[in-house]
From TrEMBL:
GO biological process: DNA-mediated transformation
InterPro entries: DprA, DprA_WH, DrpA_SLOG, RuvA_2-like, WH-like_DNA-bd_sf
Family: Belongs to the DprA/Smf family.
Protein name per its UniProtKB record: DNA-protecting protein DprA
Source species: Chitinophaga caeni
Limits of the DprA winged helix domain: 308-361
Lineage: Bacteria, Pseudomonadati, Bacteroidota, Chitinophagia, Chitinophagales
All residue ranges annotated as the Smf/DprA SLOG domain in the record: 80-289
Gene3D superfamilies: 3.40.50.450, Winged helix-like DNA-binding domain superfamily/Winged helix DNA-binding domain
């Protein structure tokens, strides 16, 4: 296991081998360790690799840096989540650019059903801050976990209100777990370890830098069923996160503001371009997501309740019974049905009130 982890970490450190190419390598070869054992000639035959990247992979020698990371992981009891692991966040895994490796410290369930991200400007108005606090407070007792980026402004306001109200919260970092940026948020970060956690795809000793924050934003968007924007200019990290969430087929919500207020222009732009739904309060969001009932289902329906299901419907029913929640891509892969056929069966099951559609093309049994 430790040997496989070594090669997993090594794969993430190879120049010019990003998440998409790394994923393709894993799909063709299987395990990270097998990638390093493959000949250069066989690596060249993998689409998107070619001679140059094959040579880069075979030339990788920085295993001393990898060993240092393994020591850090062991010393600080960091949980590693590899893309192929069952514990890897399911929602995030459906993003084609999902990180190969995540590093996590905390006690939260990253596969929790109800996860939302709250993002916004680093320079909010008093109105924006109060809106954020009210929203988070109203989500208490709704079995929700809240994700943000531990940055100034709306991010830290969301985290602080979660800690105050008892809502689990995850801070996604644009650097390694060996530091907190901005450092002034270290007290909140420490408290979050007991009430959620800290997550990153960067190894230790990675300095915070502007070039890293888009990667962080992808995780924030991909982990969540929905992204909520509270005050944002027309440019900036929160707008990037919102557009990523939209591209990932996740729900995006934005709060309105005055049309001449610079801090509201981003939200208004998202609504105007139909990338976000306009909301006024937490209730609007809960209703849109179908989360009005704060009780999570604890029973499993029995096959005998639905005697009229056809053979194809039973196949998908059994998949959902075993996995609880599945993305359309998983359903097509595991059932062997093409997307069109699977969608038709899913629609029939939904009309029979056997399943329901969740945000992000996810499905679950009723």
């Amino acid at each position: 296991m430790q040997e496989e982890l070594l090669f997993q970490v090594a794969l993430t450190m190879i120049p010019q081998i990003g998440n998409a190419i790394g994923r393709e390598l894993l799909e063709h070869v299987g395990a990270a360790s097998d990638i390093f054992k493959l000949s250069r000639r066989k690596l060249e035959l993998i689409p998107s690799v070619g001679p140059i990247r094959a040579q880069i992979i075979k030339s990788f020698q920085d295993f001393e840096r990898v060993e240092q990371e393994l020591k850090f992981i062991e010393k600080y009891n960091v949980q590693t989540l590899w893309l192929q692991d069952a514990a890897y966040p399911q929602k995030l895994s459906h993003c084609n650019d999902a990180p190969l490796m995540l590093y996590f410290k905390g006690n939260a369930d990253l596969n929790r059903e109800r996860i939302i991200s709250i993002v916004g400007t680093r320079h909010p108005s008093a109105y924006g801050l109060q809106l954020c606090r009210d929203l988070v407070t109203d989500l208490n007792d709704k079995n929700v976990m809240i994700i943000s980026g531990l940055a100034y402004g709306i991010d830290i306001a969301a985290h602080r209100t979660c800690l105050k109200t008892g809502i689990p919260t995850i801070g996604v970092l644009g650097h390694g777990l060996d530091r907190i940026y901005p450092q002034i948020h270290l007290p909140e970060a420490r408290e979050m370890l007991q009430h959620g956690g800290l997550l990153t795809d960067f190894p230790s000793r990675t300095e915070p830098g502007r070039q890293h924050f888009p990667r962080r934003n992808r995780i924030v968007a991909g982990l969540s069923s929905a992204t909520i924007v509270i005050e944002s200019g027309e440019k900036g990290g929160s707008m990037i996160t919102a557009r990523l969430a939209f591209d990932y087929n996740r729900d995006v919500f934005a709060f309105p503001g005055r049309v001449n207020d610079p801090a509201s222009r981003g939200c208004l732009q998202l609504v105007q371009s139909q990338k976000a739904a306009l909301v006024k309060n937490a209730q609007d969001i809960l209703e849109a997501l179908g989360w009005e009932d704060n009780r999570l289902r604890t029973y499993t329906p029995q096959r005998s309740i639905f005697p009229s299901l056809g053979n194809d419907e039973v196949i998908i029913f059994n998949l959902l019974q075993n996995h609880k929640i599945l993305h359309i891509d998983d359903i097509t892969r595991e059932s062997g049905f093409n997307t069109g056929k699977a969608n038709g069966i899913l629609l029939g099951l939904e009309l029979q009130s056997v399943i329901r559609t969740l945000p992000g093309k996810m499905y679950e049994l009723l």
